[in-house]
Design a protein that fits this description.
10% of the residues lie in helices and 30% in strands. It is mainly β. It has 3 domains: 47 residues, no CATH class; 54 residues, no CATH class; 67 residues, no CATH class. The protein has a 3-stranded antiparallel β-sheet, covered by helices on one side.
């Protein structure tokens, strides 16, 4: 039964992608987006059985994976393969935004913020605590991975010791010794190649300075139980 349903869907997609006039969408209900066989900046959209040909905004392309805006993804994240462009891909630039949609640095120096552009309007976004913007990945990164621009000690506010006593609890996690963040029950510092990284405990856990691990609040020292 599943093979039959898959065959029907495949035939429907083939009709959708090849016919000059489309009688109906493969699915009668909901919203589905389908790859255009020839154009990287366009796609077919079915909304409750109604078919439309959609065009991605400037700076966006379609791959069926990203959904930055109207099912389209950032152009740098899409592999078009043999698909061409149906529209002019020249950047429609505005101040701080190369394309109408995109992610860009807001500084030429080390920064914990970046700009996310939508319709040519830049909006400042913040990296998670302890991270900095890396233009190479269009996202946030450990500062020790961007040493050409960043000083991890300045970003984290901590200098890793040059040596760690073997009998200390910090050494238990060697070669990545851990340290508490004064006054912060939800984060810790770990040293990687003698550079500090700020780590956040997840899943509602808190940092236990005695064990240097993230634990359930009821198992942590009293100061971090609330």
């Amino acid at each position: 039964m599943k093979r039959f349903a898959g065959l029907i869907l495949s035939l429907g997609l083939a009709v959708l992608c090849s016919a000059a006039s489309i009688p109906q969408c493969p699915e009668p209900y909901g919203e589905q987006a389908y790859l255009h066989p020839d154009h990287c900046d366009q796609f077919f959209l079915c909304t409750n059985g109604t078919l439309t040909l959609e065009t991605c905004e400037n700076g966006l392309l379609f791959d069926g994976k990203g959904a930055v805006h109207n099912h389209c993804n950032y152009n740098w994240a899409v592999d078009c393969g043999a698909r061409k462009f149906a529209t002019d891909q020249t950047p429609l630039s505005t101040p701080a935004c190369e394309y109408q949609f995109g992610i860009y640095p807001d500084s030429h120096t080390c920064s914990t913020t970046y700009l996310k552009c939508a319709y040519g309007e830049p909006h400042q976004e913040h990296c998670d605590a302890g991270l900095v913007y890396d233009h190479r990945i269009h996202g946030c990164q450990w500062p020790d991975q961007t040493l050409e621009n960043c000083n991890p000690e300045a970003v984290i506010g901590f200098k890793c010791p040059t040596s760690v006593p073997e009998n200390s609890i910090n050494h238990r996690f060697w070669p990545y010794p851990r340290y508490p963040v004064p006054g912060d029950c939800h984060r810790l510092i770990t040293c990687v190649d003698n550079h500090p990284r700020l780590i956040t405990c997840g899943d509602g856990k808190v940092f236990n300075e005695e064990s240097l691990t993230c634990e359930d609040p009821e198992d942590a020292p009293y100061a971090c139980r609330h």
